Amino acid sequence: MNPALLETLRTAQRFGFFGGRAIEQAVEHSTEFVVAIDDLAAPASVLDLGTGGGLPGLVVADARPDLDVVLLDRRQKRTDFLQRAVIGLRQPRTTVRCADVSELIRAIDSGSATRFDVVMARGFGPPEFTLRAAAAVLAPQGRIVISEPPEGDRWPPDLLAELGLSGRRRGAVRIFRHLTTST
């Protein structure tokens, strides 16, 4: 593990940007997101939706410096911290955006922003809201990777059909793709 990344995440935790789980465990969980995109060819764009203190986005950016990673959060205090973290971690292909996801959706709909090849979320919000937001900013052949609880299936089939998505669990994450692409 990158020691500078671990220290950055410890600082984010001290600021209250995510829970009290051991940082090593949080990083291990975030590597599930890295594994879920291990076949993704560069150049590609990744959005960490509601990044908070940078999980899983900073871990993905560290593991995949060939990808363009955007860390999105609506809280200025968090994004200010992340701006400094990205500079300190020397992640030149990582950008931080302070905005609500609805602003990003409007920018994409207006053509002033582009869709993402991968949209990730660790603890963004209720499942339906998270999946709808992710689908709204996803490129046609892209994938959505969302953290899953240890048990159960929280994705109603009618919601998946409405959004044109299929999904499969892989470790601690669920990977969604458009029905026209393989899962």
The low-confidence runs, each spanning 5 or more residues with pLDDT under 50, are none
- Provide a count of the helices: 7
The description of the largest β-sheet is: 7 strands, mixed
CATH topology: Rossmann fold
Mean pLDDT over the full residue set: 94
Provide a descriptive summary of the structure in words.
By secondary structure, the protein is α/β, with parallel strands linked by helices. The protein has a single domain, classed as Rossmann fold (3-Layer(aba) Sandwich). The protein contains seven helices and seven strands. The protein has a seven-stranded mixed beta sheet with strand order 3-2-1-4-5-7-6, with helices on both faces. Helix 2 packs across helix 3. The two termini are 30 Å apart. The model has no long low-confidence stretch (mean pLDDT 94).
List the helices and strands and how they pair.
Blueprint: H1 3-14, H2 23-36, E1 45-49, H3 57-63, E2 68-73, H4 76-88, E3 94-98, H5 101-110, E4 116-121, H6 127-137, E5 138-147, H7 157-163, E6 165-170, E7 173-178
Helix pairs in contact: 2-3
